[in-house]
Specification:
This protein is mainly alpha-helical. The chain has helices spanning 5-8, 41-53, 61-72, 79-95. Helices cover 48% and strands 0% of the residues. It is elongated.
Length: 96
């Protein structure tokens, strides 16, 4: 801005302050010196699913082979039974 001395002369602009790293946490600042973690609802759900499902990176090859054979032979699940099972599982999760 013209006419404002501090802005016309770059030498009058102060340098930024030096970086000061935050102080480490001590037992006086964090309660009892213990770390804590808060999980989101999504993280809790994934944790529960992992416990219910198990390791998804490994598979039971004999079961996979059996299921592939059933599908190849024309297996068609009953849609009403599938829906009833899913609703039942969802309802039981809500009750717990």
């Amino acid at each position: 801005m013209e006419g404002v001395a501090a802005l016309d002369d770059a030498a009058t602009i102060a340098p930024p302050p030096a970086f000061t790293p935050p102080l480490p946490r001590t037992s006086a600042t964090d309660g009892a010196g213990r770390d804590s973690v808060e999980l989101s609802d999504g993280a809790r759900l994934r944790q529960r699913l992992r416990a219910d499902v198990g390791d998804v990176d490994t598979s039971d090859s004999s079961r996979v082979t059996s299921l592939r054979a059933r599908v190849a032979a024309g297996y068609q699940p009953d849609p009403a039974a599938v829906a009833q099972s899913l609703v039942g599982e969802l309802a039981s999760d809500l009750v717990v």
